[in-house]
Amino acid sequence: MKLKFIPGILICCLLGLWIPISAQTINSVDINSFISQTKATISFNKATGAAGFVRFSREDRLVIQGNSLEEKVSFFLQQYGRIFGISDPDTALQFFKTETDFLGHRHLYYKQIYHGIPVFGGDLRFHFDEQSRLSAVNGVYVPNIEAGIFPLLSEDVAASIALDYVGNQDLNVSGVPLEIQHSKIYLFRKGLVQGAPGANHLVYELEVGNKNDVLEYVYVDAIKGTIVEQFTGIHAILSRRVYEDNTGNQVWNEGNAFPGSLSIWQQNEVQAAGHAYYFFAHAFGFDSYNNAGATMRTINNNPNISCPNANWNGSTTNFCNGTAADDVVAHEWGHAYTSYTSGLIYAWQSGALNESYSDIWGETVDLLNGYQDAGENLSNRTSCNSSDKWMIGEDASAFGGAIRDMWNPNCKSDPGKVTDNQYNCGSGDSGGVHTNSGVNNHAYALLVDGGNYNGQSISALGLTKTAHIFWRAQSVYLTSTSDFSAQADALEMACSDLVGINLEGLSTGVSPAGLSGQIITVADCNEVAEVNVAVEFRQAPPCGFANMLASNPPKLCPDGKFQYDIATQDFESGLGSWSVVQLPENSSTWENHDWEIITNLPENRPGAGIYGADLIIGDCYSDLENGIIRLRSPLISIPVTTSDPVLLAFDHYASMELNWDGGNIKYKLNNGPWTVVPASAFIFNPYNGSLNGGDNDNPMGGEPAFTGADEGSVSGSWGQSQINLTQLGVHAGDNLRLRWELGTDGCNGWDGWYLDDIVVCSCEASLPVTLVDFRARGRGNDVLLDWKTESEFNNSGFEVQRKMEGEELFESIGWVEGNGTSQQPHTYQFQDETLQNGKTYYYRLLQLDFDGRKMFSEVVAVSIGNDAGTGFTIVPNPAQDRINLHLNGTFGGDFECTIIDLNGKVVWQARESDALLQPIEVSSWPSGLYFVRLKGENVYAVQRLVID
User: Is there a common fold for 766-864 and 868-948?
Assistant: First the structure.
């Protein structure tokens, strides 16, 4: 039976330049300035590119202006908020609460909001020591949100979608009806938990459960009605599907005779729950799992549990006979404590930390309580089975022996460090939570017992110090989406906080142990740092969750050759002579849909594109939705003067049901048959797979296709595919047709296939028109455009295009005749009149040949309200060694010049006008395209720079 999922992602634009989201608000100048001023250590969030953990050493904790801690936070954010991507802290963050810990340190919690809507995972925490100095800031801020804030979907409809979605996943073994237990609305950044870039969605969070064996958090797009994400709320000891029941059949209550008639497993559940309670209460002052004395309820041996197993379902712990060993019981209660401290999501690295912390507390209780340890060897480990120490579930007879090994996770096929071959890269088991937990498990065991591992020699800190460090990391610094890198920062910060403190002793009995006499030192914190290196917390996993479509496509034409467009389609003016058709296999049940032009493209891509839906419909039995939707080009005649190769490029975003639904490209050359473009003809971003054959009723079954979405996700991301049509036999004088086809099977779907900016082109030896200068000058409320050509070939003329600040698309405002074919220089002018004062206007030229081919100029800009011209010239361009900026016009006041590479990184910046008159050294810069931006009072201009 197939599962169904769905899609999303984000990019931003500067004059047609697409750069990472973080580059818009966070640049190296801000970061370097902050570090220089504060001596801070910064870790960055992989998903947002913004700062995720900022730490100050004990000697350099930050003294901030302000009479209250909230005033200090406000001052800090006004000064340095840009490193988190915060431009307006007054509207972006909402104060949540203050907590004071046993050290006298105070912690201020802020939640991110967007137009009054909470942002999922948006959680910043400011940590002040006993002297009100800032010691750390950590958490997640999602920058550059651009998303709708008004749901088009009602909560009732979203609830119905979520109930149907979970109901089709075969989770409800008990048969108890599912219901929506809670609901919220969020702005949700897809990929935040996975540590990958993603799109922003307005979502309903629907908690789907039955208070028995189902608890799922489903995130439904409140505008499109698609499933954006799903996290499970069931936490299990084994990597299996977990079910439990809450029948209320009470067999023992506090104050009843013990053991009474309880079985050995029921006795274990009572005893070990008490051990866990006293451990957290005595050592850390935490009163039950909610720190408010909640009753610890357990359900034993329920027929709805898929035995042998155990779990925490959000309200009770649940066990089968043979699973309730003391470490397993404490493990499940550990999940409850996590729910009320860090709230770690149960997926990917966050989920691995969640699972690991339960192993940590379960084994710590087991090592302390002396309960049912008869015959066990708890000596320090030397090999895989040398003793029972650090084994999880060794006394649970139903498991047939220990199921995990914290001292050497490899012994149970789990990773002990991030780059181990055992690291799980797949999306199963909520992103490998039960496997990848081995990394954090290993860190704990290494710190307790010491040892040599991965080039690090670690001195033992013992159980008391290590437990306190890990608990403080969990309860103070980790957030719901924290990953391994955040765990490393949290451990180091927790250790720093505890230096010089006489720690509470560890006890699982009714009486506390009292002060332990163990005091953490700076040397101990050095060991923590070594453990972080040993287990590679800060290294990227060996999988990386690659996007389906690679970014940064190569230039279609090599240096020295000009891209000559033969045919283009950007869908901004409709289909034109293109056509669409739908070809259902079962017209009586087929849901009518076709390729359609839309403007609400994924990742906030501007303008229009065309979308083929992969609908979440059908049942593969009576309601069959298998068929093809087809987008076809008109006849494309390749000019007889065209040079080989003839190329095809198109931008697209794909999210189609993996292996069952997908899309490909077909071509018809002259009078030949329609044929699938083979993967071998692709230059960049070929098909990522093939559609299932056999029992797949998709009429495109077995064909190569784009199918699925980005790894570890059901969302896609934009990329460009490039095809060498000449490999298919396309040459000058040929006639060509193209088809984009999306085939679906009889049921289910994800999102669909989005296309934009299709071009068929060739690479010619010389430019048809050599444009050597293009500038814009403001004159009152008019703009005078000047440009100059060095030579022209077959030049019909120039269409002048303009857009105003805030507008996405250029419009045509005039036409200037060209000079046909000429080897002489020619100058041209165009005047744009009666423009709005105080606005910035952007201009470009569309040069057209007599045969219909075209090319665009650079973009220039001018602000109305300043009589000085705003153009500038880069000399030379292209460049190799150094460049000079020639300012065209009289500039008043200081100007800021910024040079940005294609990744959005600032590579050079000057704020003094005098600096702009000096040569800029570029010899060490990598070859490629850069953007030079000149900005001053009432003026703004951008030009391209090519480094050879």
Answer: yes
